[in-house]
Amino acid sequence: MPSARETELLEAAYRYVLTHGLADVSLRPLAAAIGSSTRVLLYLFGSKEGLVKALLARARADELVLLADIGTGPGVVARLWEWLSAPAHRPLLTLWLEAYARSLVEPDGPWAGFARATVEDWLEVLRAAQPEDVRDTAAGLASRTRELALLRGALLDLLATGDGERVTSAVGASFAG
Amino acid sequence: MPSARETELLEAAYRYVLTHGLADVSLRPLAAAIGSSTRVLLYLFGSKEGLVKALLARARADELVLLADIGTGPGVVARLWEWLSAPAHRPLLTLWLEAYARSLVEPDGPWAGFARATVEDWLEVLRAAQPEDVRDTAAGLASRTRELALLRGALLDLLATGDGERVTSAVGASFAG
DNA sequence: ACATGACTGAAACAGTCGTGTCAGTGGAGG
DNA sequence: CCTCCACTGACACGACTGTTTCAGTCATGT
Questions:
Q1: Which residues contact A124 (CB under 8 A, 6 or more apart)?
Q2: pLDDT value of position B177
Q3: 20 to 30 A Cα–Cα from A121, which one of A9, A77, B42, B156?
Q4: Strand D closer than 7 Å to the CB of A44?
Q5: Are residues A137 and B166 in contact, defined by beta-carbon separation less than 8 angstroms?
C-alpha cells in the first residue's frame, strides 16, 4: 500500500520517463525534474531498481486498462490498432518497446519477464475475442498469434516511420470484415 | 578504410555486444574482454560514439548480406522467416531490436535513423519480390507493409517466448502458397 | 641509420553513478 | 506537551564513466 506521496512522485516520474526513456534514466536528474531528491526516491522505493520496477508496473497498468476496456467479439483487432496508432499513445508505446527489448537483453533485474508477460496478456485478450469453436484449436492459436504479430509489427513500423496512413491501410486490409 | 587492427578489434567487440547487449556497454569491461584497452579503442574509433556507430554499421552489414542473398519472387516471406527464426541468429536479432528501440527513444547520437533505415531496407526487398503489376500500386504498398509487419511482430513474439512452433505455424498459415 | 607513423601502457582528469549517514522537519495522536 | 513517524536536506563514500596526457614500442620505407 503505497503512501500518497509515493504515488504522487511515481506519477511524476512516470511522466518523466515517458518523454526521456527508461534506459539511461538516473536518479539525480529525475529527482530534480520532478521536484524531489534522490534521498526521498530511495527512501520511498528502496533502490533505483525498486523505482524502475514500480515504473514498469505503472506502465503495465496503463496497458491492462486498455485490454480490459477493449471488449471481445469481432473487430477487436481493429479496435486495438486504433488504440495503438493513436498519436497520444506513442510515448507510452515507445516506452513499452524499450522495456520489451531490455527484458530480452538483460533477463535479470527489474525488467525480468516483461516481454513474455505482455505476449501472454495480449494473446489472452485475442483468445477471448475468438469464436468459441476455434478458441481451443491449433488453428485458433495460430490465428491469434498471427493477429498479435501483425499488430506489433505494424506498431514497430509506425513508431519508426510515423507513416500512419500506409501502416493503417496495411492493417486494415487484413481485417476489413 | 579501416586498418587491419581496427577491423580485428571491431569484430571482437561485435562478438562481445552480441552477447552483452549494446545498451549499457562500457569501454573498460569491453576492452578487457577483447584483450585490448580503452586507450586503443579510443585511438582507433575516436570516441565511444564512434565505436558504437561502427558496431551498428557492422550489425547492419550482416542484415544487408541476408537481404542481398534472399532473392526475389514467390516465397520470400517464408525464406525471410526461416532466417529470422533460426536460433543461430537470435543474438543478432536481439541486438537489432535493442538498436531499433534505442533509436526511437534517443533520435540523436549514433543510433539516429536506425529504425527507419531498416524499415526501408526490408520494404524495398519485399517490393522487389512482388509481381510487377502490383509493385507500384497502393495495394502493393499495403501488401508488403503487411508482410513486413507480420515478420517483425512474429519476431518479437519469438524472441520473447522462444516458442518457435507456435509462431512459425502462425507465419506459415499466412503464406502457405 | 633514421625517421615516420601505427599502435600501446600507465596514470590521471573531472564528472556521474547509486547509495549510506546523520541530522533534522513538521504534522498527527496520545 | 510530547512522542512518534513519514518525509526531507546536505553531504560524503567508493565505484565507475568517457576522455586526455605523456610516454613509449615496434615495424616499415627511404
A1: none
A2: 43
A3: A9
A4: yes
A5: no
Q: How many CB atoms lie within 10 A of CB A44?
A: 19
CA B81/CA B79 separation, integer angstroms? 5
Sign of CA dihedral B135, B138, B141, B147: negative
Q: Where are the domains of chain A?
A: 49-174
Q: Angle at CA B146, nearest 5°, toward B140 and B147?
A: 90
Please identify residues in chain A, positions 13-42, with a C-beta within 7 angstroms of any atom of strand D. Answer: 36-40
- The cell numbers describing B158, all together, are 519469438
Do A167 and B149 meet the contact criterion of CB atoms below 8 Å apart? yes
Q: What pLDDT digit, counting tens, does each position of A21-77 carry?
A: 999 999 999 999 999 999 999 999 999 999 999 999 999 999 999 999 999 988 999
A107-137: b (≥16 Cβ within 10 Å) or e: eeebbeebbbbbbeebbebbbebbeeeeeee
In contact, B167 and B154? CB cutoff 8 Å: yes
> Cell numbers 514467390 label which residue?
B74
Which residues are CB-contacts of A125 (< 8 A; sequence separation ≥ 6)? A67, A70, A72, A76
Q: Do B82 and B71 form a contact (C-beta atoms < 8 A)?
A: no
Cα distance between residue B51 and residue B43, in whole Å: 10
Q: Exposed (0-12), middle (13-18) or buried (19+): which is A92, by Cβ within 10 Å?
A: middle
Helix (H) or strand (E) holding B135: helix B132-135
Looking up cell 527512501 gives A43
Number of other residues whose CB lies within 10 A of the CB of residue B130? 21
Give the residue from B105, B122, B127 with the most A CB atoms within 10 Å of its CB, the best one to mutate. B105
Number of residue pairs across A and B with CB atoms under 8 Å? Answer: 159
